[in-house]
Amino acid sequence: MIRVLNGLRLGTRLAGGVLLPLLLLMSQAAAQDLAISGATILTVTDGTIENGTVVVRNGKITAVGQDVPIPAGVPVIDGSGRYVMPGIVDAHSHMAMDRGVNEGSETVTPELIIDMRNDDPQLYRALAGGVTTIHVLHGSANVIGAQNAVIKLRWGHPLEDMYVEGAPRGMKFALGENPKRSTGRYPASRMGIEHTLRWWFNQAREYMKEWDAYEAARRRNPDLVPPRRDLRLEALADVLRGEILTHVHAYRADEMIMMMEVADEFGFTVATFQHGLEGFKITNELAAHGAAVSAFADNWAYKVEAFDAIPHAMYLMWSRGVRVSLNSDSGERTRRMYQEAAKAMKYGGMPEDEALKLITLYAAADVGIDHLVGSIEVGKDGDFAIFNGPPFAPASRVEMTIIDGRVYFDREEAETLEKQLARNAAEREDDR
Amino acid sequence: MIHMTADSRVRAPRRFPQPAALRRLGSLALALALTAALGALHETAAQSLSLGGADGTFFIRGGTVIPTGGQRLEGAGILIRDGRIAAVGRDIQAPADAIVIDATGKYVYPGMINSNTGLGLSEISAVEVTVDLREAGDFNPHIRALNAVNPHTQMIPITRVNGVTAAITRPTGGIISGQAALLQLDGWTAQAMALRPYAALIMNVPGGGGRGPRGGAARRPPDLQEVYDYFAAAREYHRVRAGGAGPVDLGFEALGPVLEGEVPVIINANGREQIETALGMAEELGIRIVIVGGRGSYHLADRLAEGEIPVILGSLQSTVGADDPYDAIYAEPGVLYRAGVKLAFSTGDVANARHVAHHAALAMAYGLPEDAALNALTIWPAQIWGVDGEIGSLEVGKSADLFVSTGSPMDARSQVAHVFIAGRQIPFDDYHTALFEKFKTRPLDR
Predict the structure, then answer these.
(1) Which of A15, A97, A244, B81 has CA 20 to 30 A from B6's CA?
(2) What span, in angstroms and rounded, lies between the C-alpha atoms of B298 and B277?
(3) ipTM (interface pTM)
(4) Domain co-membership, B95 together with B141
């Protein structure tokens, strides 16, 4: 399910030096030129363009606007009557995890990195809902879980081609009922969760100091014996160095404040609270710390810590200075993230552009890739969801999903219930 | 309590004290006082004890009225008096005693019906002591949802402020789970809320996922014969009892209205095999059935239409089977509708029973016409549950169960502005709205 990443930092350096250019070359081979013309384009960052055109070259957006020339040889999709929004980014998913979501044998497992597969059919169904990028996280059984994956749904490609190049590393943490309810294991309370965090970060800080001292001394004495290497502490030290984004599963306001206090004590910033159901109660504290919240639209009451989850939370947090995204945490919800985002307009009255950002730009920012995806802007990846109507309208559906200028889902080509029934009827006719 | 302001209302107890002086005031004055307070409450409430609906004569003016799917009256009025719809149309005026609600630019819809929920039977699904959905045993026709419904659950106010004004609440589990009730979502007791205390008997296809009350291992494969024997014994029991003989059996007694065809049987069935079994059970047992769930019923759409067997669609917010096209769940309602099957929507849950119309929206996107989507939330379930003389459309004489919204309920952006149930104005003081109002006021600096 999960592999221990041996020599993680070394591996990263290697990837940067040798593998990354190779990977880029490969992904460019997969990328394409493409234009969509005559469509209503929801750029998300720069308003809505009626009768607009967007051009993608080599997988990147090169032009977007009303009077944009389409270079010769670039295939054109007729967008008349269609609505184009940025490909949807699902900020919390467990799809395509290989054999299991939690490594539950211990409660602190930061040295692990989740293993993925490329053939989970849920990925295809998410594509059919306009999703182009997903943030895949370890489960919430452990106070400190494993390292994440950020992938694009390049369905049909090898797994190596699915990872988003340039996405920072991320790590899952979990507070509250989930980590404490694992029986026969410390911690058994929220108090113990705080102590677990502080104990391990203290260890990591000592470890970091030991290595820093060694590195400094080694310059004078090259023969010095290095300290014993500890992959677990090394991963946590990378958190303290700010090299890993921390994604913290949390529901209640108190546990989020606790986590921010721990982060402040050890000098790092919580990147996101995952779910953060009670985030609306502590918007001042979240904004001051700089933590974002990746929320559910209306999930609530399935357990005690979810009883105060209100659908107005998206609006409350957003309007009070906290960056908010929406996530599915589910192979089902991911198919209709646009419907979830529309609820931010219902409950509180978020403007449409901002509600769209919940599932695009702000979700991309959660995982540090908002410079690549999340809006329709020149220079960003050619990732789009094309709808037959306004994405938030009840009769709208996804007609086409495009990643890096390449079509990965096209309803006209896809197997649908209607086609299946028509075929069955034709077969029955033949039998007669 | 008489001279209520929004502020005093914030501290109001759940139950109204009824001093003699207040009783003497008469219902009209009370209604006026309540409604004035409720109007303010809508804007400023910050409390979590949801109040009951307020009686009164109300006139909703200026909105686009959708009496039922396919009809549309622009700039029309609705008069609500004595709990009923007293008038609907474009040429009617507000009587002098009516409280006028302006719906200009908004839409007035019949209240929605969620045809499969556990409302009042479950509060926090992970906390077993708050869940009363399942009883032990396989044959439980005597088990009644109604008398276990907590009418003061937080779930009901949250549901109704979204325009869902009635719901089936039902037990689950076993082969015969028990009796479902159809509730109007306002009232001081569950019994007062019951539009149909025994709306349907709930059954599962034997072996079709029936589990023990605590989620134990799946039962052994079905013996359909056991069901047939049980029904045969019940018929024999009623024959003997009609002659005045034999001791009372509560289970067989409860089957009586089903055997008489007075009460339908809701059969949970998904997939071709289960639905075919359900159809066979209906025929063999001579009972009137309604399919709930209905996943994969498109295979049998023509048979369901021919047999006039309604389908209560289970949650459309579900994942498709491995061999199904990606849109099978979303497209199925449209297929059933075109074949002529009577449909109703449901959520199958409790916490988000409020968002049943969003399930219908997914069906719309994949082929169900908007009018049919609305009807499957209103008049069709009313017909299925035999209450279309009472609710399900905006017609003179019916119970005034309706809501005013900025748009179609299927549109997830739409905001509900007013809700009426049995002619009572429903306060927007549910737990979620109260938390929203509270934390909106938190100062940014402390």
Answers:
(1) B81
(2) 15
(3) 0.92
(4) no
